[in-house]
Specification:
Radius of gyration: 23 Å
Protein name: Starch-binding associating with outer membrane
Number of helices: 22
CATH class of one domain: Mainly Alpha
Subcellular location: Cell outer membrane
InterPro entries: SusD-like_N, SusD_RagB_dom, TPR-like_helical_dom_sf
Shape: globular
Family: Belongs to the SusD family.
CATH architecture of one domain: Alpha Horseshoe
Oligomer: single chain
Largest sheet: 2 strands, antiparallel
Structural class: mainly alpha
Keywords: Cell outer membrane, Membrane, Signal
Length: 522
């Protein structure tokens, strides 16, 4: 299922233009009216579909998500985003600016839509279709402020960009991280109340909100509430672990499957630029580059991650290409490359001995990523790919996370637990991976499970960070962040590395962002 894209419907009422601060998007002040718009569910749902679209999320999910979540977390090696590998990120970093801009732009969309729908409702619009749309906006706003609080710590909160623009006061401070998290939680509570019990695949429901609340509660170490919300999702019976783990990230047919609670919706039709998933080229092995599919392996698995997998863990071959990995359905061919074509004629074989020009793979860690790599193109036995674009949704919350949240929240900071329900949740995830069940587990067991389960999904850095500085330092300094030709260990991890710097350009425009944070709540 693909959410209906929004073009003409949203422009009259939610036309956005930049003001003097990049992180404040505001409505046009041209005096447009909502009178002729948002008069039925289709029009309103077409508008909110923008909040799920790859277009506004693009600058986060393309590279910033990888650099922050997995390069910083020690799951990926890269020659490109070395500052994230070595924790030398500056306020001028492209990824910092891209993530900040994407998050606040989407919040801007949600802010303006919410205000528009509330005004429409006050003028007599149908609550039956406006209330769920308002709840979708609350979910997006809550989720993004949660992401912002995890990434930057203290940060500005913008709820009414129009009022800010009209006031002329753009000196907006950073608010305490605990207040940003509180605001995010309040938004998710509103989403939980207003979202429906169920909807078409891909749309948010109240269980999406419950799941994200569970994740936020866990981040806050509020174990009782994290457990309760995760249990509500589990007991709903609406979600399950899918059998095709690899296909969840590589096949369009698996978009919005039974494991997905929230994902960015991608489209691959016509000219997909801006709506397609462009993780494909950054992850794919160069040996799979064809006339249809780009692949330049910007990010590769780290050596440290590779040693994390237990023997027999099926997630390794479902997530990583390395010596011996193959896909006999993929038969990439290239013009004027007889040796390459002969090597690939009977199917793709990941080979680190063959010369690269003849089909070999020789990445810095002798491995490549399969998650979100759709293959060499439809003509060569893979999924449909148009240059840099695939049609695979990017999953931001899935049921495996809910199960592991439940298990960790049951542990609740104890040394270990053998609680039956917690073990059942953990072992469901392990069973799919072909591993033997645990009879008890510790926090380190959970962190291990999360690392390999969600590798290359942009989450592991936050799992490290939420442990606190001392534990984070211990984890980071044990990681080999090097290549097969030389190990690299971080020896200077300091507490100021726990959060990213605010983009330099934002501080230039708003000096308040460079000052100490202040309370948002009285």
């Amino acid at each position: 299922m693909k959410l209906k894209p929004l073009y003409a419907l949203i422009l009259p009422a939610v036309l956005l233009s930049s003001c003097s601060k990049d992180f404040i998007d505001r409505p046009s002040l041209s005096g447009t009216t909502t009178g002729n718009y948002y008069n039925n569910a289709d029009e309103v749902r077409a508008a909110t579909s923008t909040l799920y679209s790859g277009l506004p999320w693009r600058n986060y999910e393309s590279r910033a998500q990888d650099a922050i979540g997995d390069v910083m977390g020690g799951n990926m090696f890269t020659y490109t985003d070395v500052e994230y590998l070595n924790f030398s990120v500056s306020s001028a970093s492209d990824r910092v600016g891209a993530a900040w801009g994407a998050f606040y732009k989407i919040i801007g969309y949600a802010n303006v839509m919410m205000k528009t729908f509330e005004e429409k409702k006050a003028a007599g619009g149908g609550a039956a279709y406006l209330d769920p749309a308002i709840a979708e906006c609350h979910f997006i706003r809550g989720t993004l402020y949660f992401y912002i609080a995890r990434t930057w710590g203290a940060a500005p909160i913008i709820t009414d960009p129009g009022a800010t623009a009209l006031s002329g006061n753009f000196n907006i401070p950073r608010y305490l991280q605990k207040d940003v998290l509180r605001f995010a939680l309040d938004e998710l509570k509103l989403a939980e109340t207003g979202l429906p019990e169920s909807d078409v695949p891909g749309r948010l429901t109240k269980y999406s909100a419950k799941g994200m609340m569970a994740k936020l509660y866990l981040y806050n170490k509020d174990y009782a509430n994290a457990k309760a919300k995760a249990e509500e999702v589990i007991n709903s019976g609406k979600y399950m672990l899918v059998d095709d783990y690899m296909g969840m990230f590589t096949k369009m047919s698996q978009n919005n499957n039974a494991e997905t609670l929230f994902s960015i919706q991608h489209q691959l039709a016509g000219d997909p630029w801006g709506t397609g998933n462009i993780k494909n080229p950054d992850r794919g092995a160069g040996a799979l580059r064809t006339a249809e599919a780009d692949a330049w392996e910007m990010y590769v698995p780290s050596l440290d991650l590779l040693k994390e997998y237990e023997f027999g863990d099926l997630r390794r071959k479902w997530s990583v290409m390395e010596q011996g990995w193959s896909n006999l359905n993929w038969k990439p061919q290239r013009a004027n490359s007889p040796k390459y074509n002969a090597f690939m004629a009977n199917g793709f074989k990941y080979d680190t001995l063959q010369p690269t020009e003849d089909g070999g793979s020789l990445s810095p860690t002798r491995s490549n990523i399969i998650k979100y790599f759709a293959g060499p193109g439809k003509s060569f036995g893979g999924e449909a790919v148009l240059g840099q674009n695939s049609g695979n949704n990017v999953v931001l919350l899935r049921y495996a996370d809910i199960l592991l949240i439940y298990a960790e929240a049951t542990l609740a900071g104890a040394a270990s637990t053998n609680d039956a329900k917690a073990l059942d949740a953990l072992n469901k995830v392990r069973s799919r991976a072909g591993l033997t069940p645990r009879t008890s587990f510790t926090l380190d067991n959970i962190l291990h499970e999360r690392r390999v389960e969600f590798a290359f999904e942009g989450d592991y850095w936050y799992d490290i960070q939420r442990q606190g500085f001392a534990k984070a330092k211990s984890i980071i300094e044990k990681q080999n962040r090097g290549t097969v030709t030389g190990a690299n260990y971080i020896t200077t991890f300091t507490e100021d590395k726990m959060f990213l710097p605010i983009p330099a350009g934002e501080i230039v425009q708003d000096p308040e962002l460079g000052k100490d944070p202040v309370p948002y709540y009285n």
